[in-house]
Amino acid sequence: MASKRSAAWIGKMRKLIIVALVLLSACAAAATPQRVITLTPHLTEWVFLLGAGDRLVAVSDYSDYPEDAQHLPSFNTFGALNVEAILALQPDLVLAWRGGNPEADLQRLQQFGITIFYSEPVLLDDIASELQQLAVVLGVPEQGAQQARLFRQRYQQLQQIYQQAPPLAAFFAMGTEPLLTVANHAWPAQVMQLCAAANIFADAKTDYPQVALEQVLARQPTVIIQASRDAVAPSSAFWLRYQSLPAVRQQAFITLDANQLYRATPRILDAAEQLCRQLQAYRERG
Q: Boundaries of each Fe/B12 periplasmic-binding domain copy (predicted)?
């Protein structure tokens, strides 16, 4: 008799445990954000990369990758945010770029009970770290861990292949009127360092310094790197008049895809691989 009672009690406990687990799972699912808005293109890419693109109800302007993002409602995120329009979509999560979106408007959203996830990547490895953090918030930690692992593997492979390569004096021409370049933590500067391109303005104090043409002529770059939409090579007419530059005499111009290079997404390593390969070709050419 006692054993029957014990078995019955164990059976009831098992049922209670199963019910509790189901309830916990339901609560967790309810807590997982289902209506998400992104306020910067790189976060739009991250959400799709993590397999949660179907939860996006709106994205920032210029969210053009992947293609599915182009079919979503978009917000102008330069200047003031349209807080009323964002609230009308009833998001349960807004993904923002700290320093790139108006802080006062984000605070207003928080006052209305909207959860804000802040992204602030500075170094290349921050892309992997923040992807994992966002994945946890979205309830897809496995996808975040996988994407972070893939990113770090590619990054380390590039380091191993090119870190001992002979450096090439390189100038990144971000713009010619005025003459702008990159240094320090600017994404192109980090990619150049990864590929053993010796940035001739690595000593600049800011990330995007304006420089004088005389400085470029004095520092004699052997390669000039540029970026444009879809990697369409911009006109080299500006540089052709300066035949004293080794890069011009050897026609050593490299053009990268600006959308890959300037966005804090894993696609930045696509631009890095292209730059590394082309620099290596110039090294081998001598």
A: 35-283
